[in-house]
């Protein structure tokens, strides 16, 4: 028997999609509402879930543990309302749950809107066992309790599903800004780090946030502290620390950044988790003129994640520098097929078409790029491009 376990609050817009994605896959759905004032509870009940109520305890771990105590299944799948199960993962997951020694299955999660790291790994499917409990304030996880259980009972197995199982849109920039989630995440990270000074996981998350928000000094200090403390048994944390330390070093220390990206790529994690390091190292090598390796790395990203527009755009830049215009044009077109509003890709496609001798195609491409810039509120950039392109082709023809 497989149970779905969820905690929710004011998720009326997303919950139905999540619950429909597991219909027929799970045998029961347990939803714990922590104080919604919208239609969340009613939607959960209408989808067949058992709905329970809990006053928010101020921490995700006790809330998740309360929900875990209510399920009856032999296995437990844990989702958030902004996630859903991919139908392609159902059969692989069922097969992975069959072995009697299987304890936990790590799931690949697709991160909608993530420009550089479109996949993450989450431990959200596990056998119901009295020793498995949630811990940590930020990104509550069962990993600590699983590690302790494996020390006592080493016959258990931790497995991984190669097929991406979940889709997650909670980190889309527009959703974060609208919900105020970013501020709550920072508060939770700071609290977790205060409770666990030097914890590699907390250092990785908060260090990456500081770098992304411009506080490079604190970010680098946190990332280096986490890297000094991370154990050999935590490859995902090691990779993340190296990745974000490379990102922080890249603006002023490209050689050091390249070395860190290479170290990250040596960490034994699932290939699709390494897309950020491959993509960034490829872009760095492009700037340094190391085009062959840049092309190989970026082509790997397009193979592993063909739905990532940035990878195709970067591949177009690299192929154009290599003098491979047909390949550059094909890459730009694929980037635009995935992200039609990408004005920079449209401009570069037009330039590549012009170099290839396709004057009508270049003219049309420049017109499209100018129109995109105007619609996106960039009139000065649109005017500059019109002047530059007009010196090369007649835009009014």
From TrEMBL:
Instruction: Please report the residue spans annotated as repeat (TPR).
Output: 309-342
> Which residues belong to any copy of the Glycosyltransferase 2-like domain?
5-157
* Record keyword Glycosyltransferase present: yes
Per its UniProt record, what InterPro entries does this chain match? Glyco_trans_2-like, Nucleotide-diphossugar_trans, TPR-like_helical_dom_sf, TPR_rpt
What EC number(s) has UniProt assigned to this enzyme? 2.4.-.-
On the tree of life, the source organism's domain of life is Bacteria
List the SMART domains: TPR
The entry's keywords: Glycosyltransferase, TPR repeat, Transferase
Query: Which molecular-function annotations from GO does this UniProt entry contain?
Result: glycosyltransferase activity
Which enzyme class?
transferase
Check the record and name the Pfam families matching this protein: Glycos_transf_2 (PF00535), TPR_11 (PF13414), TPR_16 (PF13432)
Which protein are we looking at?
Answer: Glycosyltransferase
